[in-house]
Amino acid sequence: MLNPDLIRQEIEALSWSFGAPTMAIHSFESLPSTNDQLWELLSAGEQIPVMAIAQQQTAGRGQWGRQWQSSPGGLYLSLGLTITPDQLSPLLTFASAWGIATTLQQAEIPVQLKWPNDLILQGRKLGGIKLETRSSCPHIVIGVGINWQNQPPFPGISLETFFQRQGKRYISHLEQLAALTTSGILTGYDFYAHQGCDRLLQAYEGLLIHLNQEVKINGSLGTILGVNQQGELRIRLKSPGASSEIRCPLGTISLGYDLPNLNPSQLP
């Protein structure tokens, strides 16, 4: 199993004082879902912040309830934090994604983002984020899966593959990646709490791989403008002599990996 003390030491080495000395870290060989385990820990009275981490998931979930393949060799962790009533969950997803990407960039791994919650490396999917809230509950569970040494399905990429291509290893062990990921979540959470919605959206949009790309939706040419506070994707459609902006809610369209290919499953 992963070493909780080493993870905690790595977090402290990153100069993150927020909860690091007292953070409870629960490590498992295998779990159905780290998110489910975290909710169980919170229901049992575990104090915030708290982490559940596993070397394998047997029933991991991605966005929209899709199965997340969680084979041994990847990073699978969930972090429990407290939220305020005015913090919107789509923006918390954006904050987590931006924070993790920014932290990995500082470790010389050029991670970008694909709306709404994918971590992208060299045009391929490095990982994803699954955020969960429950009604009348002041807590939020942020689940993260990152390909480390596992063999992800297409169009995925692992950090091991990236290191081999670079001829250099920027992260030495899985506990270090867990610490960087945790630090990234906390960095994004702190940025959102202190800088507000507009600054967060601007920072998030700055890492989007599809920003300002031209795409076609049902035969109409458009340009991706960014996102709004509801988490919707903003697209300006163009037609002779006119233009209009549409907003696509989460789950209504799927952005491809090969630009400028946008595959609409449903439009509002």
TrEMBL record:
Its EC number is 6.3.4.15. Residues 9-212 form the BPL/LPL catalytic domain. InterPro entries: aa-tRNA-synth_II/BPL/LPL, Biotin_CoA_COase_ligase, BPL_LPL_catalytic. Pfam families: BPL_LplA_LipB. Keywords: Ligase. This is Biotin--[acetyl-CoA-carboxylase] ligase. It is an enzyme of class 6 (ligase). One of its GO terms (molecular function) is biotin--[biotin carboxyl-carrier protein] ligase activity. It comes from the Bacteria.
